[in-house]
Known about the structure:
This protein is α/β, with parallel strands linked by helices. It folds into two domains: 17-46; 56-204, Glutaredoxin. Helix content is 32%, strand content 16%. The radius of gyration is 21 Å and the shape is globular. The chain starts with 14 loop residues before the first helix and ends in a 17-residue tail after the last helix. The model has no long low-confidence stretch (mean pLDDT 93).
Amino acid sequence: MTDPFPRMAFPNESAAYREARNALLDAEIALRRQTEAVAEMRRALPPGGEVPEDYVFEGIGAHFRPERLRLSDLFGDHSTLLLYSYMFGPERDVPCAGCTHLLDSLDGAARHVTQRAAFYVVARSPIARLAAWAHARGWDHLRLLSTAGNAYPAQYYGNTASLTPAMRAERGYKPGEDWDEPMLNVFHKDGGTIRHVWGSELVFAPEDPGQDHRGLDTIDPLWGLLDTTPEGRGAEFFPKVDY
Length: 243
């Protein structure tokens, strides 16, 4: 059978290496196609549910003063809004290291994302605390908002409060014990109507053996880079806030 396209060859590689690498390349091409097929399914979802209320968040406005912003305000000139729920509630001394390493990367991406859609990071801590943390972290492009006690985290799974009893039982969670979760939600505004488009539900799906949920891997460059290495992600490695 004739190879469908010319293949590369690096200096001094063996025939066995090239054969295995070509098979891997075929799998990578198939994965690329599957990734696009999944993206097409995501874009083709029927309209999601209308948001139950115009949630009020707290941000930092002009002259570094707190300002109150409704969900509808966050879209700006865009019709699409992305909200990432940061695991940094008031009960935490420091935020989640997993969320933090992801936001380190997304701070660089934010200036590009916001050319196409509005993008904010929300957390349950007071806005002054969030602003101080963003400044200390050197985040220049992410916009952080406090949920300021609103119902958004519970209703859109930024924490575990809305998990069903069956979901709690599957994970071994005790009733009444809740914590933040790293949920990404996408919303669309059409006139005066705001609907939910998509949420990273894979965060809450059953995990495969030896893996965590990997619910946000598609936007996380750390794990993508480590997956290219011979050592992989490492069974014991998890990013830290500081090293």
